[in-house]
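FAQ
Q: What does a multi-component entry look like?
A: The components come first, one per line:
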Amino acid sequence: MSSSTVLIVDDDPPILKFVSANLKARDYNVLTASDGMSALRVMEEENPDLVILDIMMPEPDGVEVCRRIREWSQAPIIMLSAKNDLKDRVELLNLGADDYITKPFAIDELLARVRAVLRT
Amino acid sequence: MEYEKILNGVKPKPKILIVDDKVGNLIALEKILADLTVEFVRATSGNEALAQTLEHDYALALVDVQMPQMDGFETVELMRQDKKNKNLPVIFVSAIYKEEYYLIKGIEKGAVDFVTKPIVPEILRGKVRIFLDLYENRTSLEREIAARIKYEEALKASEETYRSIIENIQDVYYRTDIEGKLVMASPSGAMLFGYDSVDEMIGADATEAFYANPSERDSFLKVLEEKGEVYGYEITLKKKDGTRLHVLTSSHYYFDAHGNNLGVEGIFSNITERKEAEEALRRSEEHFRFLIEDGSDMIVILDANATITYASPSLEHVAGFRPEELISKTAISFVHPEDVSKVTELFSHGLVIPGYTVTMETRLQRKTGQWRYVELTGKNLLDEPAIQGIVLNFHDIDTSKRAEEQVLQHNKELAALNGIAQTINQSLDLDDILNNALDKTLEILDINNGIIALLNKQDMIANLTVTRGACEEELKEISTINLEESVVSSIMGQSWEPMFIETLSDLFGSIPEKASNRAIEQEPSSGMIVPLKARGEVVGIMGASTRNERVFSPEERELLITIGHQIGTAIDNAQLMEEASRAEALEELDHLRTELLASVSHELRTPLTSIKGLASSLTQPDVEWDEDTQNDFLRIIDRESDILTHIIEDLMQMSQMEAGIMKMDMAKSTISAIVSQLSANLANLIKKHQFEIEIPRNLPQVYVDQIRIGQVITNMVSNAASYSEEGTRIVLEAGKVNGEVVISVTDQGIGISSQHIDKVFDRFYRLESGVARRRGGTGLGLSICKGIAEEHGGRIWVTSKPGQGSKFSFSLPIIEKPSSNSNLQRK
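Then the predicted structure of the entire assembly, as tokens:
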């Protein structure tokens, strides 16, 4: 269970910081990227087991990154978004995201979803 | 008699030559002109048209321009080479008249008019009628001249006949005895009196047998007794069958050798034929005079000084003057002022030449003062012993001239309406439409004063939207008319019918004194108020007034009403358009709000996510964070809370600004004073850059809210620092440019590409989301700066080169002497 590699993508440094701190504290290998392009690069180089992907980023945004990852990888993706309406959620799941979490969130909720996604 | 017969002979129908290569078009032309009494001659090609012009005489030719082989222009050019057709009026029918080239070419070829397809039947009929009338006038004049010539020839012939009778019939010799019995007569006597022989006559009592009126014999003898003899004495005798004989006699007494009176002898000649010819002449003269005096043509004879010496009674019908009222008057005093120079010219140049004939159109004044169009033919007959004057023959052409004028007027109106329509269709902007429509209307009517007011029926007011001419300034101050009290509603009533006011000055009591005084100065005359209607509803009113005793003619009033309808419709369209665009704008606003809400939500959630994430991390039961991490997390929470506060403050400021309730604390100040107050704060912001301040001391004062302007400067400097490398230069400078103070901040940073440069003042727009936010930006800074600069009456702008740096600037107006603080304070 441990030593799964998680890629966290967000353009806001504090978020990268506390998410990675928490994952590391639970023995995950953590990779970070602060924009879509570097996320795709890291994805190709490291092929992580899970991606935590923020939607609201400058181009390419999280939705686009998700779409591109799904072109070649089945790694689970958890999307982070400020939006919380149902339509977006359904859209994201259709696009190939495995789960979805709305900002702001408590860290244990994210950890629970990470565990759940990696179990399947 | 002969003369009359010729004059009243059957007139042939005037012929119109219609030329078009399409028979269908010919039939259409004939149908349009069907109710005119004319004979159409068709030609389907230029050659055929030429052949037809050789055969007949035409009143008018309607020629299609576009024909295969020989086109209309060429046809007419060839036609003109025949002397007979040199002056034949030609109307070109064309679909391409719009090309000015064709118009000019047509006129060069001698066209009198152009008609464009599709043909408007009324206009074509009107035009053709004018030329038919002209033709009619010309041919009737020609006929009259021909008739007079024939009449003169007839007179001459009868004189010759008489002369031959005198010459060929021998005079009669006679002798009566003392008792009056015929004793001798020449054989020619028997022949003249219708007897078989002289013997039959001898012995007859002269008085009884030969005198038509016996008392004439007594008078004859009386004269003879007095004078002893008579020469050329005229008596009336009778033939055997009783018919009368007019004779001239030369007679005397004759005596025997002893001096005894034996009777009368003499000769006489028959003058019956001459007498009859004279009688005929007299009667025909009478008839001629009757024609002149009771006919519709008027004759005036002038002396060499243009004084009237004769006027035919027929003048009374047309001019209203009896002939005796005109005698000794100067002819020119009856001529329309606009025609005087033309007529004078004619008299001083043409009519001084003996025998010179001239024809012209002019207007003569009736006794009632109205003007009437006449065609005048003048001939100098001063050298003619019988006349010794200038003979003017007038022909009343008023009806046809008025008809022509009506066609012209109608054309003018159509052009005017077309002009208005074009003007108001150029725009859908209501203000444009109203301004242009009113200007065009005034131009067409050649007047200066007009208004358009839009109605607001709910509040019962009319808003004076556009005003022109007199009292423009005063009316601007009024701006609204209360419909319940105003003169407008009192004269238009509730029916909103067009209203013509003949004497405007009567109304001025009801408008403000200042305006009415000015209005009266303008010498107003008549006025017209028309409703502007759209879909049956009155949406506004248009008013116009004339000056200097000019009164709107009925045609002008009609035109104004029609223009009113057009403007009404245009207003309606514009208002519908405005409503539509307002709805669109509302939708757009709604869309922006939704977007803003999404942005605000995102901006607030981001720091909140960090705060919640970090706080919830610190409370995790399963992880023991080391002290450094704990402190780090708490510091971030602290900073993110500040950012959150900052965003909320910016949002508050933004919404105050948008709602127009931002409080401004205005005071006189200088840029250097503001910057010096900021200096510590600025230095703190840009510790790691070379910061230079270049502000001249002698800059003019500005009238500003110092805190807000300080905020703008700080924001710009902070942005410069955020987007440029450490150690690079940042320059804050100010200067006077074109009457404004301009403050700029220049950096050597990353610059802004052209695709982003338009958006930098938009809310939440960031060049680089994360980095900027870490540096304390909220994405609202420049947007707020823009609002503040504009609130001060200034502008804000940026110039930039990617990779080289940006220069942000804003301007402040220099206010020399602010009248009071409250003037610039918002609410």
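Q: Is there any commentary attached?
A: Sometimes. For this entry: The interface with chain A takes residues 598, 601-602, 605-606, 608-614, 616-617, 620, 623, 625, 629, 632-633, 636, 640, 768-770, 773-774 of chain B (CB under 8 Å).
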